[in-house]
Design goal:
The protein is built from six helices and six strands, in the order βαβαβααβαββα. With 169 residues, the protein is an alpha/beta fold. The chain folds into two domains: 118 residues, Rossmann fold, CATH 3.40.50; 37 residues. A six-stranded mixed β-sheet has the order 3-2-1-4-5-6, with helices on both faces. α5 runs antiparallel to α6.
Length: 169
């Protein structure tokens, strides 16, 4: 007989997509009514986040403009790990969640028992270390393809221009 997993009592929400924050917090409170919800937020958003009834605590990321593992710093990341979150939540402004790999990696780096990514439709996907790194690779390789396409276009333009100049000479 399989034993049920221990209950979720300590949740970290990474405040990355503000327009779905309230709906996600309400959903989490309904699903885990006894859980303590901490929100990781940038300094300018701390006051407004603290006023949300579902939020038990706001944790500052400082004044960094971008949220990510390296922007947070090792001391803050270690402090978050020591809190032993059961669930870390990444919020997405888009259905597929592409463009939020840095938030997913941050959730993974905190080392919670479970990780979820929530989209604007209120749906979530369970994330694993492998799925997070695969998504990161897909996002980064997209940029590489765009750069290579730009380089190829420039080279072709240069070759055509030189060919026309040689023909006119």
């Amino acid at each position: 007989m399989k034993t049920p997993p221990p209950p979720v009592r300590n949740i970290l929400v990474i405040r990355s997509a503000t327009r779905i924050l309230n709906a996600t917090l309400e959903s989490l409170k309904r699903e885990f009514p006894e859980a303590r919800i901490s929100v990781l937020a940038q300094e300018p958003a701390q006051d407004s986040t603290a006023r949300i009834p579902a939020v038990d605590e706001v944790i500052s990321t400082g004044n960094s403009r971008r949220m990510g593992i390296f922007n947070l710093g090792s001391a803050s990341l270690t402090a978050l790990r020591q809190r032993r979150f059961d669930l870390a939540v990444a919020l997405y402004n888009v259905d597929h969640g592409l463009g939020y790999a840095n938030i997913d990696r941050l959730a993974w780096a905190v080392r919670p028992r479970f990780i979820r990514g929530y989209n604007p439709k209120g749906k979530y996907v369970s994330l694993t270390g492998a799925s997070i790194w695969k998504k990161s690779l897909l996002e980064k390789t997209t940029l590489v393809w765009v750069a290579l396409n730009g380089l190829a276009t420039s080279v072709l333009f240069l070759m055509i221009t030189l060919g026309l100049l040689a023909e006119w000479a």
